[in-house]
């Protein structure tokens, strides 16, 4: 199949920049796609980071330390940007104003003001496709729950719980980095870092919280820097948000949690939906399985746990008997972004990447959560602004 090659620039060549390079290098894993990303230029403030790309990604033609030089290349159509949160506003706005499509990392601005500046640039440039990175909904188990929500299988929703939990920060000797400083990660702390992943599906389903009561915790107050000095660890480690959802058709409680210190959990993303006709749960802790409990009045209440085969949004060479993992979810998200760049609304499948509006919704929730934690009250969320 002839493929449309999309010439990409990568700005920010750290952890996530490399994940994209790995997904692009594994494009042959996908079958039946008529598009392919090609990373032709990279930019990082630290030359050692771009050197990795020059050594490992043969398609790279140019490496820059100034992203504006990369944006000046008219042959580059699209950008993946994965930089610290304090840089999102300026760099995303410049990318959009340069007329390049953008898959930007969350949280899409360090705070709500920054996010609004990005939104304003998007409104001025409707010709540019902008999406926010969020890969976990591409797990086959999550895709199954999405299908059940779209098919209205749950009946009246009783409650929803969604979370994203890490645990490596339990170690007090773990060194500080930009993600634990307010100047670079933002006041949102763990919510800015992990929260878009948790809110992606609720936003997609139209489950907008009307109000939030937040409990934010700082558990480890200082950490060693790279000289071994103890320095303040400023950001919120854990957040629990009790939300009151009103969809217009039904209302229900939704508990969202983002945790940097959840003992025993390494990259655990989950969603649990309880309804009067069906309850279902998926967690990346158990990435092969989906649990569901169908119910008819008077019937047995029994959980069914089924291995979810490798059944992804985009078909791959992997057989259905194998299992799906984190790097597969990144590959699938990239396929969805490239599919949308090439086919617009006529994508091969209908689950598109998180939108800027969904990211803006997450900022409304995090900003209200900060106020709720500060005042000790429930904060109302105004979705009309
Ligand atoms: N989708 C996910 O699962 C996921 C996972 C981790 C991080 N993230 C997000 O990705 C983004 C980056 O996080 P990371 O973990 O890759 O961080 P990282 O620290 O590993 O990489 C960030 C890179 O940006 C570079 N950089 C800093 N200033 C720059 C500038 N002015 N111009 C160009 N490059 C510059 C740094 O040198 C570094 O190499 C953040 O928004 C973060 O929230 C997403």
Automatic annotation (TrEMBL):
Residues 6-123 form the Gfo/Idh/MocA-like oxidoreductase N-terminal domain. GO terms for molecular function: nucleotide binding; oxidoreductase activity. Pfam families: GFO_IDH_MocA, GFO_IDH_MocA_C3. The keyword Transmembrane helix does not apply. Residues 143-277 form the GFO/IDH/MocA-like oxidoreductase domain. The keyword Cell inner membrane does not apply. Keywords: Oxidoreductase. SUPFAM superfamilies: Glyceraldehyde-3-phosphate dehydrogenase-like, C-terminal domain, NAD(P)-binding Rossmann-fold domains. This is Gfo/Idh/MocA family oxidoreductase.
